[in-house]
């Protein structure tokens, strides 16, 4: 009798356990359909529509991390090559999207681990009772059958969960997230490039203002000596004022661009050093096979893909689809062609600016020698430095424009343009 009661208790417990896992599995299936059916689309749409969050939101996130003793609150070095990772970590929308995705993976992994553990335990119990089959009564044999049945059901459920895990981790399932990260990365690259150009131009303008101030001081002394007229002195004063206004404008634009860039990265309120834009890869640009890249760009275009895979049953629908496909392909070909032409133009501008800078370097070296020999006035020297810095800034800006043009071309090829 004791064995029968034990068998009934075991059967009851296993029935409850099966009910528990049925509820869990049903919930997981519903969660999966919601998360990976609708949420992924929302993630992508949010990434397209909301490239920058409000500074208030970013500051709130930063403050929360700092108050919690977050070790990442230390100084940050922003480099062109780590923008994508910084965005995934710091941008509120992007980091949440990846975090939610990873949390769902972790949830599925946990339930799979649990199911496999329960399956193993059930199989062990069933095998143990089978080994003692000769000593078991009828109800205990039924209990052994329940163990074996439960183990089979758990194995089947674990198999389905594993397939879901595999699908969730596949390239296709992560495509919308990666596209979203691409969109943010493109924008961050553009903002970092703009900031560096403004910084370069502002530094050159500071040298120009310094030269203008020296020139105005010299003009004042010459005016007092009667060597120039009041109108000529006024022209020097106006020129200095304009140079200062330009510098003030550049400083303001630089500060605003920096603030927007740091907001996008989620680094507002942090100690941040922004690195420079790398030199253009002239070898990679020279090695471009445009015809091959054009075909890749067409094939990678989401618009082209959508039209190619659009459903069409009637002859009219099929013909219309062919027409839409041709139009989408033509649009993408025009887009990649424009990006390539812009790249070539940027390379020509860079080469011209580089030549001008190399000539300016020779002049600068002569300037230093003449200064040391006492052959130049301070005003002449400062003007020479300003001219040199202007040529250097032009070269650096042309370099950054070429990098930007090459990046834009590469994004077009990848279908992210």
Describe the structure.
- The protein has 417 residues and is mostly helical.
- It has twelve helices and two strands.
- It has a two-stranded parallel ribbon with strand order 1-2.
- 26% of the residues are buried.
Average residue pLDDT: 80
Over all CA atoms, what is the radius of gyration? Answer: 34 Å
Count the beta strands: 2
N to C succession of SSEs:
HHEHHHHHEHHHHH
Derived from helix and strand composition plus strand pairing, the structural class reads: mainly alpha
Share of residues in strands? under 5%
What is the percent of helical residues?
Answer: over 70%
Biggest pleated-sheet summary? 2 strands, parallel
Structural shape: elongated
**Counting H and I runs of at least 4 residues, what is the number of helices?**
12
Amino-to-carboxy terminus distance: 76 Å
> In terms of per-residue confidence, which ranges show pLDDT below 50 for 5 or more consecutive residues?
1-11, 17-72
- Reading side by side through the largest sheet, how are the strands ordered? 1-2
Features of this protein?
417 residues; two-stranded parallel ribbon; mainly alpha; 12 helices
């Amino acid at each position: 009798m004791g064995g029968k009661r034990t068998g009934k208790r075991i059967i009851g417990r296993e029935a409850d356990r099966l009910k528990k896992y049925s509820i869990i599995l049903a919930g997981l299936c519903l969660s999966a359909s919601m998360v990976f059916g609708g949420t992924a689309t929302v993630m992508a749409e949010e990434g397209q529509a909301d490239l920058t969050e409000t500074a208030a939101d970013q500051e709130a996130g930063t403050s929360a991390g700092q108050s919690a003793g977050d070790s990442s609150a230390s100084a940050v070095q922003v480099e062109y090559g780590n923008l994508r990772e910084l965005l995934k970590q710091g941008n509120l929308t992007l980091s949440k999207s990846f975090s939610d995705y990873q949390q769902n993976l972790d949830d599925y992994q946990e339930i799979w681990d649990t199911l496999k553990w329960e399956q193993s335990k059930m199989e062990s119990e069933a095998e143990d009772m089978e080994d003692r089959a000769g000593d078991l009564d009828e109800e205990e044999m039924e209990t052994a059958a329940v163990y074996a049945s439960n183990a089979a059901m758990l194995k089947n459920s674990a198999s389905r969960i594993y397939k879901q895990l595999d699908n969730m981790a596949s390239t296709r399932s992560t495509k919308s997230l990666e596209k979203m990260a691409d969109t943010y990365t493109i924008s961050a690259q553009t903002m970092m490039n703009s900031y560096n150009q403004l910084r370069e131009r502002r530094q050159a303008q500071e040298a120009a203002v310094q030269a203008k101030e020296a020139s105005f001081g010299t003009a004042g002394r010459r005016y007092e000596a009667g060597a120039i007229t009041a109108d000529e002195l006024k022209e020097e004063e106006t020129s200095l004022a304009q140079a200062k206004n330009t510098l003030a404008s550049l400083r303001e634009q630089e500060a605003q661009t920096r603030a927007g860039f740091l907001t996008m990265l989620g680094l507002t309120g942090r100690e941040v050093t922004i690195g420079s834009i790398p030199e253009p890869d002239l070898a990679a640009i020279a090695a471009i096979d445009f015809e091959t890249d054009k075909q890749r760009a067409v094939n990678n275009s989401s618009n082209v893909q959508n039209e190619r895979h659009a459903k069409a049953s009637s002859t009219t629908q099929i013909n219309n689809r062919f027409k839409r496909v041709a139009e989408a392909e033509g649009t993408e070909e025009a887009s990649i062609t424009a990006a390539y032409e812009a790249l070539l133009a940027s390379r020509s501008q860079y080469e011209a600016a580089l030549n001008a800078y190399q000539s300016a370097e020779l002049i600068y070296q002569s300037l230093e020698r003449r200064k040391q020999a006492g052959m130049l006035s301070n005003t002449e020297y400062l003007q020479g430095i300003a001219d040199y810095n202007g040529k250097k800034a032009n070269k650096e800006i042309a370099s950054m424009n070429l990098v930007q043009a090459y990046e834009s071309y590469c994004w077009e090829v990848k279908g992210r343009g």
